[in-house]
């Protein structure tokens, strides 16, 4: 606020000036009394974009100026920093998002984006899936190197280059290598910005094949829904479910933005070889308890993987090449999955019920472990 007569405290000592001063003092007092209540209401708001709208609807004058100064002092710098970190993201997201502001995000390196590799298999699974081909229009492929970005642009309409400054990121990074760890941590910073911009997201590794619409099985009350390596049988069981952060949905709320911040900050408390998934598993009780994030764990019979293997093709939505080391092994066994799915969808309804159809066992991935 300026040093002029906005609050009337330095005005004339005459009667008119005193009356004016009293009015401004009362006004200032009321604003000062109301401001803490307003701020509490703003901070309690779930939706990230609601705070500014609430304040703008409140009124003008001193409160508006205070809000503007607070925003300038505390929000403008981080927002500008994030904008510079992810240039073009704010204009790209509206082109990709669904009507409810949800974006599907996956990430690839040059190795994963090569012809015939995981990006091609990933896209093919949508095209052959059960009524999910249209969801490809809402997939944002995040490339972590220029070669992966160029390949993405050749085959997919929505691509974003997020260069990860680490050693040999374009190679087929083995699980838990330095390049792999940098990739998985970089995605969290990117996802935090997506949430801050007011978009929900469903992150999916590119080694996950999509066969049916997963959104039908994500509870509306969930702040986060995450797949599992091991499922306890209870979707709300924070302690016993073993999450897999290769596939998770996050709703854009203040809680989830703070969750992403907390998750990234927790990295410094653990040995450097820990990846995002192991740290998430360690802090999930904190997220659910202290931050009140509602986490729902997805059933492995629906959101399958090679760790906890299910053969029920009639129910599965996605299949993840988890518990698998080596790009070639993933590609080989996932190709078999896609071939199996094509054969399954050619069957008539009676044949599907009587055929006792089973997936080809992921032998190479199992051997790799």
UniProtKB/TrEMBL annotation:
Which Pfam families does this chain map to? Nucleotid_trans (PF03407)
Domain Nucleotide-diphospho-sugar transferase, first and last residues per copy: 134-334
Matching entries from InterPro entries are given as: At1g28695/At4g15970-like, Nucl-diP-sugar_transferase
The record's PANTHER family line, in alphabetical order, gives: EXPRESSED PROTEIN-RELATED, NUCLEOTIDE-DIPHOSPHO-SUGAR TRANSFERASE DOMAIN-CONTAINING PROTEIN
The protein here is known as: Nucleotide-diphospho-sugar transferase domain-containing protein
User: Which organism's genome codes for this protein?
Assistant: Zizania palustris (Northern wild rice)
């Amino acid at each position: 606020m300026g040093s002029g007569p906005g609050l009337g405290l330095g005005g004339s000592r005459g009667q008119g000036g005193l009356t004016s001063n009293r009015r401004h003092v009362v006004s200032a007092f009321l604003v000062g009394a109301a401001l803490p209540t307003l701020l509490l209401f703003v901070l309690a708001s779930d939706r990230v974009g609601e705070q500014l709208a609430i304040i703008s609807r409140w009124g003008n004058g001193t409160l508006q100026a205070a809000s503007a100064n607070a925003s300038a002092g505390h929000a403008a710098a981080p927002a500008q920093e994030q904008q510079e970190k992810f240039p073009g993201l704010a204009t790209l997201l509206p082109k990709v998002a669904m009507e409810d502001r949800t974006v599907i995000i996956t990430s690839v390196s040059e190795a994963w984006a090569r012809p015939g590799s995981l990006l091609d298999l990933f896209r093919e699974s949508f095209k052959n899936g059960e009524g999910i081909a249209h969801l490809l229009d809402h997939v944002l492929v995040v490339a972590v190197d220029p070669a992966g970005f160029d390949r993405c642009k050749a085959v997919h309409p929505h691509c974003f280059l997020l260069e990860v400054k680490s050693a040999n990121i374009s190679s087929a990074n083995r699980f838990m290598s330095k390049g792999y760890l940098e990739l998985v941590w970089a995605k969290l910073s990117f996802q935090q910005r997506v949430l801050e911009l007011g978009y929900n997201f469903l992150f999916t590794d590119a080694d996950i094949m999509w066969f049916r619409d997963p959104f039908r099985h994500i509870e509306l009350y969930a702040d986060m829904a995450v797949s599992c390596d091991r499922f306890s049988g209870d979707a709300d069981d924070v302690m016993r479910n073993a999450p897999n952060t290769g596939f998770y949905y996050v709703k854009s709320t203040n809680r989830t933005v703070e969750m992403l911040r907390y998750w990234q900050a927790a990295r410094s408390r653990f040995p450097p070889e820990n990846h995002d998934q192991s740290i998430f598993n360690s802090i999930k009780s904190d997220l659910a308890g202290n931050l009140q994030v509602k986490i729902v764990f997805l059933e492995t019979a629906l959101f399958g993987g090679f760790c906890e293997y299910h053969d029920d093709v009639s129910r599965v939505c996605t299949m993840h090449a988890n518990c698998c080391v080596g790009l070639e092994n993933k590609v080989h066994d996932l190709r078999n999955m896609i071939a199996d799915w094509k054969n399954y969808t050619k069957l008539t309804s009676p044949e599907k019920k009587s055929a006792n159809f089973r997936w080809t066992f992921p032998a190479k991935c199992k051997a790799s472990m």
